[in-house]
Design a protein that fits this description.
The chain is α+β, with helices and mostly antiparallel strands. The protein has one domain. It is built from three helices and four strands. The chain has a four-stranded antiparallel beta sheet, with helices on one face. α1 runs antiparallel to α2. It is elongated and about 55 Å long. It starts with a strand and ends with a helix. InterPro entries: DUF6172. Pfam families: DUF6172.
Length: about 110
């Protein structure tokens, strides 16, 4: 998704427009995450850029997307550019530490 969002739209309340933009972004993310990753990959990662215009856009963390949308609204931007590009990636699975679980079970039984 590479899009310039308008915050000032005639016949719409600015707060409702911000909510509408957030909803559209969430729907896009959900749609992309529901796709099956290519073989050899196990999840979708997102490369994100945000700026007042496409030329001024800089990279941001995926978790900060809604914070930057709120920032644009609080700074009274008329519009802003948001780029979300999904890419397949490999997420390493954390192994559970069995020795810690056994110790916790023993402590619970003693109490």
């Amino acid at each position: 998704m590479k899009k310039t969002f308008q915050l000032n739209v005639s016949n719409k309340n600015r707060d409702r427009q911000v909510d509408s933009i957030k909803n559209e972004v969430r729907k896009y993310i959900k749609r992309e995450k529901s796709k099956r990753p290519p073989e050899g990959f196990n999840f979708w990662a997102f490369d994100c850029k945000f700026g007042k215009t496409a030329d001024e856009a800089s990279e941001i963390k995926f978790v900060d997307v809604t914070k930057f949308i709120d920032f644009a609204a609080s700074e009274n931007y008329d519009s802003f550019y948001l780029e979300l590009i999904a890419r397949a990636d490999i997420k390493k699975v954390k192994e559970k530490n069995n020795s810690n679980e056994e110790q916790n079970d023993q402590e619970i039984e003693e109490n």
